[in-house]
Specification:
The chain is an alpha+beta fold. 25% of the residues lie in helices and 17% in strands. The chain has 3 helices and 7 strands; from the N terminus they run βββαβαβββα. Helix 1 links the parallel strand 3 and strand 4. Helix 1 crosses helix 3. The protein is globular. The termini are far apart.
Length: 132
């Protein structure tokens, strides 16, 4: 992978066109929680890498579904760590991207179109950061 986590080359595998990563010890993201955007609604955050095929697939599905999102570099912004922890992440390797909306996070995404639909429904329902 062209952009592994600093000091974690052994924990990054992009051999199948996607990026699987293992967060380095201590990544919690507690210093940078997602904030709400205009209208009091939670932003959709997509933590990705530019060289990640699955990340592009996710972004494309969001664009096609009309889901606005904020793109964040998974290597520079580690606030995704807290979102994973609070959503039952048990450790180990997972595939990018990480998508966060309010207090809900998704990783190892298998159905990008389905996720775009789910998030669009969450936004239409007025989901705020405090809600699931």
């Amino acid at each position: 992978c062209a952009h592994p986590l600093p000091g974690s080359m052994a924990d990054t595998d992009c051999s199948d066109g996607s990026c699987a990563i293992r967060p380095p010890p201590g990544v919690t993201g507690s210093s940078a929680q997602p904030s709400s955007s205009g209208g009091g609604k939670a932003p959709v955050l997509v933590y990705s890498r530019t060289v990640c095929g699955l990340c592009w697939m996710c972004r494309w599905n969001f664009w096609m579904a009309g889901v606005d999102f904020e793109l964040r570099d998974v290597d520079k912004d580690t606030s995704w760590g807290a979102a994973l922890d609070s959503n039952g992440y048990q450790g180990g390797t997972f595939k990018l991207p990480v998508v966060v909306h309010g207090s809900k996070a998704w990783w190892d995404i298998r159905d990008h179109a389905g996720l775009a639909k789910e998030i669009k429904e969450r936004i239409a329902g007025g989901c705020l950061p405090e809600g699931q």
